[in-house]
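call fold(seq) -> tokens
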Amino acid sequence: SWRRVLLRLDAVRHDLRDLRSAVGGSTGMVVCTAEISHFAGDRQWHLIGHYRVGLARACDWRVASLRFDLTAERGDRGLVGSSFPR
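ret:
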């Protein structure tokens, strides 16, 4: 469902900071602070939170899970309609 939402936007920017990683065997985890900005015309919606990216290794490392924990937001949530849960 996010694909439809993103196609309606002019731009999306992810600013990732404070990346921390841990690896054990064939699994890993990356946690980072993120600010995500969505733009459409003169409308903007900004999210601040943390990504948790689970990794799995077979031959190459792959993303096995992705979670975003929202801590703050500002701007126009209507930019993405009802696709983003509270």
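Strands lie at 11-24, 27-40, 43-57, 61-75.
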